[in-house]
Every structure is written in structure tokens, then in C-alpha cells.
Amino acid sequence: MIQGFLRVAAATPECVVGDCGNNAGSIISLIHEAAGAGARLAVFPELSITAYTCGDLFSQELLGKVSITAVRLIAESTRELPITSIIGFPMNFRNSRYNCAAVISRGKIHGIIPKTYLPNYGEFYEKRHFSPAPKAMFTIPAGVFGNDPVPFGTNILFTDEKNADMSFAVEICEDLWAPVPPSSAHVQAGAVIIANLSASNEIVGKSDYRRNLVAGQSAKGMCAYVYANAGHGESTTDMVFSGHNLIAENGIILAESVLFSTGLICTDIDITRLLQERRRMQLVSNEEGSGCGGQYVRIPLALDNSAAPQKSSVIHAGDNTNTVPAESSPTAVTTIPLFQTGRSLLRKIDPLPFVPGNPEETARRCEEIIALQTVALAKRLSHTNSKTAVIGISGGVDSTLAFLITVRAFDCLGLPRTGIQAITMPGFGTTKQTRGNAVQLAEILGTSVSEIWIHKAVKQHFEDIGQNPEVFDITYENAQARERTQILMDKANQSGGLVIGTGDLSELALGWSTYNGDHMSMYGVNSSIPKTLIRHILAYCAENPDFFVDPPEAAGNKKYGRPVKADKALMKSSYKEFSSILQSILDTPVSPELLPPRNNEISQKTEHIIGPYELHDFFLYYVTRWGFSPSRILFLAEQAFTAENTRLAKTYTRPEILKWMKVFYERFFSSQFKRSCMPDGPKVGSVALSPRGDWRMPSDASISVWLKEVEKLEE
Which end of the chain has a smaller Cβ tally under 10 Å, C or N? Predict the structure, then answer.
């Protein structure tokens, strides 16, 4: 396991009904294949040794004996592989017959888990053949599965012998469909991975239900869920099986097989992320509870150990058994340690964690965020009885989004857009393009717009404090930002309105704002939206101009949602102009425009100074949402920002990532004092830095521990 990732597999072998030898051979081959792919855990379908559809053949004494021998044979045949396998088989034990799972590792059967809930409706009649799992735990005597006794029961937790936090438990098919699945108790006992051996037949629409069920249970348990389903070779007398295998993690399907296929699906489970989520939410306690019957038996395994044990004699096939046919025996496979080739994961790490990868989902996300911001601002305007709002517009992406949200809030409250005072305040670094975009946008949306040049006031301030206007230092820059904030605040006082803040989440994280300058407002609508996401929201707005450009009488007819469309023929020209302005704003480099331009071009580009926002937003997400260490974030970033990732046109090398990571940590720690007194603003996503909400950090916390790790990584 590297950086907390464990590779797992769900496998569907081709089976022959009742032929345990053939089925064992197919299983052994797939175990070798899974181990060769670097998997450390492989899950097989329910009753995969015999096939699920044996019917009354399950009552045959010979089939019971052969199936146990087949399990032992699989254990011996995979003894030297660094993988744990979970196999389904029927077992006669004392006075009953059970539908069971065997957990096999390094030539040994470590535990037998019987099925708890037996379906006996429709096409299923399992109670004809099997008994439900007993509530008590038992021990299968030595000699049945080898030289050692084997625990038998539902309350078994398998843990890694070197890392007790990495553990798994097992449930079987219908157990998942129950109102309270055994896995719900398993996760309370500490299971991070749930393995499900299933024989769920395929009917129209069932795959969607199954997918939702697996994803939902993994979300409820904050766990990984590995679901292996029966497939080709099962009897089709009354049912058809599709081999629909699924691997989910905390509500997300990571891997899924094609219906009506056999073989493996593999992916990497993020154990560290799951544990971090549990510790954050504290919904999974350390109290075991009663599970399905009594306390849990904990069995250590070499789940994350690649060293093969010494071969030793365990069992031999008896007289009344099938043996694995020669043609089914697996060829020699060289196992590949996890991440040996290029240290690459089998799952994608998104370089834009705040932005959905699917265009349709991105559009839905953007519309939802606009609605959230609109409702939040409308509530604050209504509560303060404000009929006006004051906003500084610069022609940049942040102020543009805040301005559009203010327009929507006024429409939804039935207030005239002329009550929005859009003010552009050109300074020493303002360019003609940004000023023009800001003014044109206000004009096309029908708000009030005015220009207040700050040159004279700032020069007077320089004279008052003895600042040389030819020295382009931090005082030169911040004096402009504070002058603009003073203007906005005083204009709001004149009209009895609110100053709408424009700063975004990325700037808050990096402290990229002037304290008591653009840092301050009366309500910050963008405060929990990162820069990378703001750009996508504006692109969405450009594609949907009717969301904003329609006249107020049409827009106000539907509160907080998409407005009633005006006559498209009349609005076509305005729509086109609106979209063109937004596109121009998106094409403009991010800049505070505080230093004089060169040839009327922006000379001060933010990302040249503090680094690419796509990297900083990536760091921000994994530092605050997941609490990951610098070394782990570096590993994820190296997976995300590669040439294979088609979401970004640019890639980043390890030295580049580390350079800007160091900048991120330094700025993040040193700027907490600004966040400790930030204005109110709505939380719209899973990451926010408000001291009243998600993030409570001392303003004088030391960075030394984090910085030392970054510097060690640089070495």
C-alpha cells in the first residue's frame, strides 16, 4: 500500500454448475490475475465453488464434501501470492447447511462467514436449502480446513496485522437488501471495506437499483464496498446472471463491469480518505455494539504485505473429490507490487476537485450555486431592509459573478435593478479593456453605473503619509484597495444599502487581499467559491444569458430559479453582447491591477506572483477538506496533473508542484488573521473557511511541521 491506497478486485469466473474442480480452477486463475495486477484483496461471487443455481443438488452429501476440498485446494494453490481472496461455497456444519464465504490468505482459511438473510420470494427459495446465520459465534474444529480451527460466524473483522485501522468484513448478497444490513454493524466495529459475494440475477432495471444500493451503503458506512456478482455459466433454467461487479467508495462508484461479462475489475481504495472522513464526521464510533450476535472476533492478516511465506504441506485431496483439471490450472504469473510501474493509480485523481468532470453535471452545479448565492443575498437584503446594494466592479471574474448574483437577488425580491450601484474605480493599474467590460456589463443589465477615479485621492494620501508615489511597494498597492473600500462603504451609507463583497475562497486561502481593503464588505457572496469554479460558473452564465439579461418583469416571475424567457427575437442582440462581455472577462488574466500597465496591457498577473490557481485550489481542497499531509497531496497531484488527464491543457512537474505547494502553506498559515474576521457569506460547497462554520484555526499557529515535510520532499 502506498499513500493509503489499497488495490482491490471484484471477480466473476466462468462456472460450470456442480463442477467444483472446474470452478476452483477458474477461481485460481483469476486470483493469479488479480495478484499480478497488484490487487491485495479479491472478492468472488456467492457460492462460486459450486455455482449458485445448483438447486436441490445442495442437499447432496458429495457436493458438500467436494466444495470444502475445493476451498482447501484454492488456499494451497494461492499460498505464495500476496493476496487475500474471499470465495463463496456451501457448508454443512452441525445440524444445518449454510451459504458461506471463506476468507483465504497465504494458504490458510482464516474465517467462515455464513449468510444472514435468505431470500425466499419470487424466483428465490434459499430457505429450502440453507439456514440463516446463527447469532452465536462458533469454531470449526481443526482438520476441516487445515491444521487449525477456523472461526465461524457473522461478527468477524479481518484486520491488517501491521495496521489495525485497515480492516474488512463480509456480507452475502441479500444481506445488503435487508433494512439493517450486517455491514452497518461491521462498519461500527471498524470495517473500512465491505466485501459482498452475490448472486443477483438480472431483470430489467435491476442494475440501476443494485448500483444505487451499493453506492448508498458505501456512503452510509463511509466505507469501500466491493461487490462481486455471479455471471456466465450459471443455469438459465429460470434466471439469468450478468456478472455485474461494482466497487464503490463513500457513495461514488469507482469501477463497474460491463453487464454479461466475466473476469476482473480492479481499482484502488483510498483507506486514508475513508478514515479521515470517519474521524471528521464522528458517526462511526469505536464501540463495537452487538453486530448480528455478540462481540467481534478480530483476525489479523497480511493484507498489506508483499512477502510470500514459505511453502508447507497443509492438505491433500481425498478420494471423493474432484481435482482441478490440468487445462484449468493457472500459468505462472509474476506478481506486480502495487504502483511499481510508474506509481500510477487505477483511479483518476481529478485536477479540478471543485468542478465536476461531466459537462451536464457542471451545468447543474453552476445553476444550483447561483440559486444558493441568490437566496443567501436576498435574505440579507430583506433582513436589513436594504433597497440598494453597492458593488465595486473591476472587469474581473470575481466582481462579475458577485454582480450577476446581486442582479438576480434584486429580481427575486422585486426590486428595481437601478437600486444596484455598480461602481468602477479606475486606479494606477486599470486598463481600458477591464474598465470597458465592467461598464458595458452594468449597462446591458440595466443597473446604475458610475465611475470614480481614485488617482487624486490616493496621491493625496501618499502625500499625507509620506509615501513616494514612484515606489511600487505594498503600500502603493494597498492604499488603492483601501481607498476603493472606503468609497464603497461611504456610498452604501449614503443610500442605506449594503456593500457586496467580491473576494473568493481561493483568495481567502492565500490571503490575496488587502486587510480592511477588498478583504472587507458587508456580505461576501463568493466567499466559499474557489477561483477555478467561478470561471466555470461564468462560462455557464455566458451560455445562458436569459438567466440574467431578461427584463426584471420577466425575471421576477419565478423566484430564485430560471426566469421566464422574454421574446428571444427582441433580446437576441443583448444576449450576444452579454455573452461576448463575459467571454472577454474570462479571457482576461487574473490581476488586482494595482501596478501601472505596460502599453495599456496588464502588467501584474496574479498567477505569475502566487502561482496557478488550479494548483492552489487542489492544495486547498485536500488540506482543508481531507486534512492530508504534504507528502500525500504531492502524490495525488502527481497523479492528477499529468499529460494523460484531458481536463487540463497544462501539466506540472514535481518541482513545480512543490514550489507552489510551499507558497500555499506559507500564505495559508500567515493569512489566518484575515479569515478570523472575515464578513458573513454563504457556504455553497464542502469547503469553506469561515471561522463561524468550517474552519477554526488560531491566527498564530506555527507552520513548522508542514514546512519541514515540504522541504524534505524538495530534497
Answer: C
